[in-house]
Amino acid sequence: MEVYEKINYLLIEKEIIKRKFVIELLSLEPTLKATGKIPTEQTIYRYLTGKREIKIELIPYIAKVLEVTEQELFSFDIEYASDYNVKYSKEIKEIINLLQYAPKITIEQMINQLLKYKNLHTNTKI
């Protein structure tokens, strides 16, 4: 996953429209080292589509607008790997955080139930 894809994922997860993201990013007045100027709206949209490479000096500003750490823009955990998780990532994160409190029997029951759903899903796709 490329950084621009992760940014787009976070925009979806945080329910931020691209227009709002662009406006907030520009309000921080990020300056490009090569030109000494603030990037244009069009340039930022090109960053979001992957048509232009995101300049490293913009990363702190992007992270601030998205309210994440700079490192999170570069972490590509499995949770970001599928369309399913794009839709349900908040719920999955909540479940993962709560699993530490579940007794072993509950975890085993969850695994068994999920395997049943998986089998149903894979058997119906044939």
Q: CA-to-CA gap between the ends?
A: 29 Å
Radius of gyration: 19 Å
Provide the domain count: 2
Global outline:
elongated
How would you sum up this structure, described in words?
This protein is mainly α. The chain has two domains: 3-76, 434 Repressor (Amino-terminal Domain) (Orthogonal Bundle); 88-124, no CATH class. Helix content is 60%, strand content 0%. The chain has six helices and no strands. Helix 2 (18-27) crosses helix 3 (41-49). The longest helix is centred in the last third of the chain and has 21 residues, at 104-124. The radius of gyration is 19 Å and the shape is elongated. The two termini are 29 Å apart. The model has no long low-confidence stretch (mean pLDDT 86).
Summarize the structure.
This protein has 126 residues and is mainly alpha-helical.
SSE topology:
Elements: H1 3-13, H2 18-27, H3 41-49, H4 59-66, H5 83-98, H6 104-124
Helix pairs in contact: 2-3
Task: Label this structure with key terms.
126 residues; mainly alpha; 434 Repressor (Amino-terminal Domain); 60% helix
